[in-house]
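Slide 14.
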Amino acid sequence: MDSIPQLLRYLKENEITFPIAFGIIRPGLVGFSDPKDLVISKEREIFDKLYYLYQSAQKYNLPVQKSYILPRGRSMYCGHENPNAYIIDPYLDVYSCWEMIGIEKYRIGKITEEGEFTPTPFYYEARGRDALEFEKCRNCKLLPICMGGCAFVSILKYGTPNAPGCILYPYCEAGLRFYHKLGDKRNIYLNLQEYIT
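Slide 15: predicted structure.
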């Protein structure tokens, strides 16, 4: 975490100015080690760290992508359901989610030597995810901003991506304060307060 400002300074000095997005990586993922300084357990601490990172990027006048982390109406939770989003690893295995990289049974396909995409059976299970099919989601007030939550969380809980993957910490009080501090002018705190009480 302490080396992030150094990385941002490097990006600025070398005029590398793509939009930066900071996110939360849960411990225990296949492709990641779990350094103690990256594992954050308290909701408040998560958002304090994210705010620090966003402020650091703004200090260097680097473009910051906030849209994916702010609560908003959406048609899908993330790229897992997006038919145009793919993650290709160095072995040309294709995944729909960065948290599934390296877990062979969650590959959605493979790029052949000829450059063709060959889907796996999991491709159809992954791309067919629909939050409206989950009773818990249909009855949830957060559905318009959550759309079923994280497919990987639903795999961990239920063994399938086709179940609710609730991640409520972005909508806790600490999360709402974070969004407000980012300067979002849509009164997110007021709009979501009815959903979390």
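Speaker note: The two ends are 33 Å apart (CA to CA).
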